[in-house]
Design brief:
Elements (H helix, E strand, L loop, with lengths): L2 H38 L13 E7 L3 H17 L3 E7 L3 H13 L6 E4 L1 H9 L7 H4 L16 E2 L2 E2 L2 E13 H6 L10 H15 L4 E2 L4 H9 L18 H16 L3 E2 L8 H11 L5 E5 L11 E4 L13 E8 L5 H14 L2 H11 L12 H9 L5 H8 L12 H14 L5 H20 L2
Parallel strand pairs: 1-2, 1-3, 7-8
Antiparallel strand pairs: 3-11, 4-5, 6-9, 6-10, 6-11
Helix pairs in contact: 2-12, 8-9, 12-13, 15-16
Length: 447
């Protein structure tokens, strides 16, 4: 090789070495820039990088129109929030929701929030797993003075739940059947008079005159509307075997099993029995039923009308007005607790709770919701929308606070099955339940 060629080769090697060196430097610079972009929330072109939303699981057991409406509100929240995404974990009913919660709590992995009825709420409250919410509800943007039944979330001086919606048990009847026989539901003075109407309808139409839900809350309402209570005034004696309880429950039993003028549907998965009861009324197999204010979204009000509950034994009706509650959990990460509360604020704002009310029939949790355009427009279309709110303001009473963590309620549930399904005389079923419930209460009250 001559000197000239050797110099050219050396020059070429030098150039190639320089190129490789610069490629490495530029590559390192590019990697560093990507790392810096990630750390600063920037994409490669300097625009903000999308942040993954914090997932917030919510446990609830709602079906039918209720479930559809809840999903719609969750979607609306997710669309409006850049930081949080609510993920529904749907259970069969409230009881299954409690079971799922207990399993998740035992594993120290609770959801961000859940929706519970009052009895399930009390069990959770007694277990010391719920997050106190007093600091949250005291903030001006929540406006707690506008919220109905907020005090039902109190447990031992702390607010452990806030209303998601308010429920009261209503009476729904077929307008065509009642009009055919010139029956004015509102003029009926008692449940006994309703039973006489049911007997006449069974004789003339060959259908059940009324359907009684396989539901403990309804049976409690009947007993309290006969003048009974769950415990004595001093709170020391369980009184579910009193004359008033026995009268109301045995009347229902006789109308179902002996006179056969009423029916009860039981069993199935989740709320299957509930919706079968409604179907029997809508399909003309029954002239009416006792249901929930939350049935409004599943009913055709060109066929049915809403009435307030009736009393027994000449007593004033005393239906429970109950808050179905949002609960947050102590063991959830702080970020999830904050996100859960953001959803609670969104859901319970006047417009959203009004939307929930007009779609489902449940009572809105805010007084101000009644004045929204969406509520007023629906009220013109369906005047029966206001009946549940009228009932809780006229006759509604708070639920019994079970100091045993739900064990008294559990005995009432067992007795309900014995009377409604097994046709056991109410006196026998209730006396057995009273003894067991009293034993549980004594454990709590003993010094």
């Amino acid at each position: 090789m001559n000197k000239r060629n050797k110099k050219m080769k050396n020059a070429l090697l030098l150039v190639m070495s320089f190129v490789f060196m610069m490629t490495g430097v530029l590559g390192c610079s590019s990697d560093m820039n990507k790392a810096n972009d990630a750390a600063s929330g920037q994409s490669g072109n300097g625009t903000p990088a999308p942040q993954e939303k914090v997932k917030l699981e919510i446990y609830y057991g709602l079906g039918g129109k209720l479930g559809e409406t809840m999903e719609k509100l969750i979607q609306d929240f997710n669309s409006s929030s850049d930081k949080y995404e609510v993920v529904p974990v749907v259970q069969g009913d409230y009881g299954e929701t409690l079971q799922a919660l207990q399993a998740s709590l035992a594993a120290k992995q609770p959801p961000a929030l859940a929706i519970n009825r009052y009895p399930e709420f009390m069990k959770l409250a007694a277990s010391d797993v719920l997050l106190p919410l007093d600091d949250y509800i005291s903030k001006p943007e929540y406006n707690k003075d506008d919220v109905l039944l907020l005090d039902q979330g109190l447990y031992e001086g702390e607010t452990l739940g806030v209303p998601a919606y308010v429920a009261s048990q209503m009476m729904y009847y077929r307008q065509d059947v009642f009009e055919k026989y010139d029956i004015d539901y509102d003029a009926l003075a008692s449940f006994e008079e309703l039973a006489e109407v049911a007997k006449m309808i069974k004789e003339k139409e060959g259908i059940f005159g009324w359907s009684v839900m396989w539901y403990g809350e309804h049976m409690i309402d009947y007993a309290r509307s006969a003048g009974g209570d769950i415990v004595s005034e001093d709170g020391k004696t369980v009184t579910i075997d009193s004359e008033e309880w026995i009268y109301a429950w045995d009347s229902i039993r006789k109308w179902i099993h002996e006179d056969k003028i009423m029916e009860t549907v039981y069993g199935g998965n989740g709320w299957e029995w509930w919706y079968k009861t409604i179907d029997n009324v809508m399909n003309g197999k029954s002239a009416g039923y006792t249901g929930s204010s939350g049935d409004g979204g599943d009913l055709d009000f060109t066929q049915v009308a809403t009435g307030m509950q009736k009393g027994f034994m000449g007593s004033k009706p005393r239906p429970v007005a109950v808050s179905v509650m949002f609960n947050l959990f102590k063991d959830s990460p702080k970020e999830q607790q904050e996100g859960a509360w953001e959803f609670v604020k969104f859901y319970t704002a006047a417009e959203q709770t009004a939307y929930w009310a007009v779609e489902t029939g449940y009572i809105p949790i805010r007084e101000s919701a009644v004045n929204t355009d969406i509520y007023q427009a629906k009220l013109k279309e369906n005047p029966y929308l206001s009946v549940p709110l009228e009932q809780i303001k006229t006759n509604g009473i708070p639920p019994y606070v079970d100091p045993t963590g739900g064990k008294i309620y559990a005995e009432i549930e067992l007795a309900k099955d014995k009377v409604l399904v097994q046709n056991m005389p109410a006196e026998q079923a209730l006396k057995e339940a009273q003894q067991k419930a009293q034993a549980e209460l004594d454990k709590v009250l003993k010094p």
